[in-house]
């Protein structure tokens, strides 16, 4: 497949256009890492019903893209990043409300293949990932900017596998786009979060990357400086509640934030 076709498929796989975030009805606007979609959609729907609030407008994309949108003045009241680097970035730009930042979730990365693949591979130092990929592509989120891609590259470098596959990477704009390439059989292998693999029935986990091969995966959340709605704090508190914890854990996330008493 030609590079422009890979890029086109990745772009088409974006979970939701950023322009959708420009809510016209006063609803809470949230920017969230693409890997959060399944869990956060469920949590938002429950909160809307229980609190009697308008449904939040959630834009899912790579944390890097969302951070840049915030820098350009996009009207989000909450930002949930898939790593601390991009939250640090917007924080240093003065875009985060002081005292609201919290480390919300943890995750891990895994190697995936299409569900019907017979490939077996043991991830360990010196493993021959290049041979397993063969003439195909290794699907990953952008390895220089998107958290999932950065974690994956770090793990491959630590394991001594990066040099062999660096010219075989199909880089997608976010982790869900990388997941889709494998689910469609367009790539024989991919690196995504374990939660993404669990959410997609058309892939299987080949093996998990050892936790000591990449930095701890932390999802921080915070209100933005431009937030003007009390619902932002209410929803952030809800994300730390026991009900939200159940939804996050069902999707495979590790909940890091201390539980609140919010409904």
Structural commentary:
- 38% of the residues lie in helices and 20% in strands.
- With 263 residues, it is of the alpha/beta class.
- The model is unreliable at 1-23 (pLDDT under 50).
Given the helix and strand composition, which structural class is it? alpha/beta
Helix content: 25-40%
Task: Give me the Rg, rounded.
Answer: 18 Å
What's the mean pLDDT score?
90
With strands numbered from the N-terminus, the spatial order across the biggest sheet is 2-1-3-10-4-11
State the distance separating the first and last CA atoms. Answer: 48 Å
What ranges have pLDDT less than 50 throughout 5 or more consecutive residues? 1-23
> What is the percentage of strand-forming residues?
15-25%
**Count of runs of 4 or more consecutive helical residues:** 11
**SSE ordering:** HEHEHEHEEHEHHEHEHEEHHE
Q: Sheet bearing the most strands, described?
A: 6 strands, mixed
Say how many strands there are.
11
Q: Overall 3D geometry?
A: elongated
List its salient traits.
elongated; 11 strands; six-stranded mixed beta sheet; alpha/beta
In short:
Helix content is 38%, strand content 20%.
């Amino acid at each position: 497949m030609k590079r422009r076709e890979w890029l086109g498929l990745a772009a088409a796989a974006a979970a939701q256009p950023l322009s959708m975030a420009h809510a016209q009805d006063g609803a809470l606007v949230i920017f969230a890492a693409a890997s959060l979609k399944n869990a956060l959609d469920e949590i938002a729907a429950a909160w809307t019903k229980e609190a009697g609030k308008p449904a939040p407008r959630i834009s899912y994309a790579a944390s890097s893209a969302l951070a840049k949108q915030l820098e350009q003045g996009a009207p989000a009241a909450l930002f949930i990043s898939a790593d601390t680097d991009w939250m640090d970035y917007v924080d240093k730009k003065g875009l985060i409300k002081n005292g609201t930042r919290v480390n919300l979730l943890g995750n891990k990365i895994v190697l995936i293949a299409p569900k019907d693949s017979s490939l077996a591979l043991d991830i360990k130092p010196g493993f021959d990932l290049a041979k397993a990929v063969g003439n195909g592509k290794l699907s990953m989120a952008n390895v220089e900017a998107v958290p999932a891609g950065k974690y994956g590259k770090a793990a491959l470098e630590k394991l001594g596998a990066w040099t062999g596959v660096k010219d075989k990477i199909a880089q997608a704009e976010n982790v869900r786009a990388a997941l889709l390439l494998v689910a469609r059989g367009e790539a024989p292998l991919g690196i995504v979060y374990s939660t993404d693999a669990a959410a997609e029935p058309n892939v299987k986990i080949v093996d998990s990357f050892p936790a000591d091969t990449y930095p701890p995966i932390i999802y921080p959340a915070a209100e933005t400086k431009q937030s003007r709605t009390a619902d932002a704090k209410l929803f952030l508190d809800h994300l730390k509640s026991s009900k939200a914890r159940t939804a996050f854990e069902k999707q495979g996330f590790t909940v890091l934030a201390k539980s609140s008493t919010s409904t």
